[in-house]
């Protein structure tokens, strides 16, 4: 059974599943902010309802940042260039 992304972003933005202690998450958030790309952050330690989705798209692992794009697709630890390409920025 495929679990859909719990949150789908608006066009031109992303949803980022993260934790407070993740250095890769902090870096990506700073880059998105600097580029003016909107994002909604969901802390997977605070919202356990998203864990099944995170596990599904990461081969059973809790890997962050996991980013969801407006088309419902996702990427694990994408670069800023990859995010920009996927949202057409």
Rg:
12 Å
Might you state the CATH topology name?
Answer: Glutaredoxin
Shape: globular
CATH class: Alpha Beta
Question: What fraction of the residues are assigned to beta strands by DSSP?
Answer: 15-25%
The strands making up the biggest β-sheet line up spatially as 2-1-3-4
Looking at the overall shape, the CATH architecture is 3-Layer(aba) Sandwich
Largest sheet: 4 strands, mixed
Strand tally is 4
Name the CATH homologous superfamily.
Answer: Glutaredoxin
- Share of helix among residues? 25-40%
Helical segment tally?
3
* Unreliable segments of 5+ consecutive residues: none
Number of domains: 1
Q: Calculate the mean pLDDT score and round it.
A: 92
Order of helices and strands: EHEHEEH
Short description:
With 89 residues, this protein is of the alpha+beta class. It has a single domain (13-87), classed as Glutaredoxin, CATH 3.40.30.10.
Write the layout of secondary structure elements.
Elements: E1 13-18, H1 23-35, E2 38-43, H2 51-57, E3 66-68, E4 74-76, H3 80-87
Parallel strand pairs: 1-2
Antiparallel strand pairs: 1-3, 3-4
Pfam families: Glutaredoxin (PF00462)
GO molecular function, one term: electron transfer activity
Protein name: Mycoredoxin
Question: Would you give an account of this structure?
Answer:
This is Mycoredoxin. Residues 14-69 form the Glutaredoxin domain. One of its GO terms (molecular function) is electron transfer activity. It comes from Flavimobilis soli. InterPro entries: GlrX_actino, Glutaredoxin, Grx-like_ET, Thioredoxin-like_sf, Thioredoxin_CS. There is one protein chain. The radius of gyration is 12 Å and the shape is globular. It has a single domain (13-87), classed as 3-Layer(aba) Sandwich (Glutaredoxin), CATH 3.40.30.10. Strands 2-1-3-4 form a four-stranded mixed beta sheet, covered by helices on one side. The chain has helices spanning 23-35, 51-57, 80-87; strands at 13-18, 38-43, 66-68, 74-76. Strand 1 (13-18), helix 1 and strand 2 (38-43) form a beta-alpha-beta unit. It is an alpha+beta fold and 89 residues long. The mean pLDDT is 92. It is built from three helices and four strands. Helix content is 31%, strand content 20%. It starts with 12 loop residues before the first strand and ends with a helix.
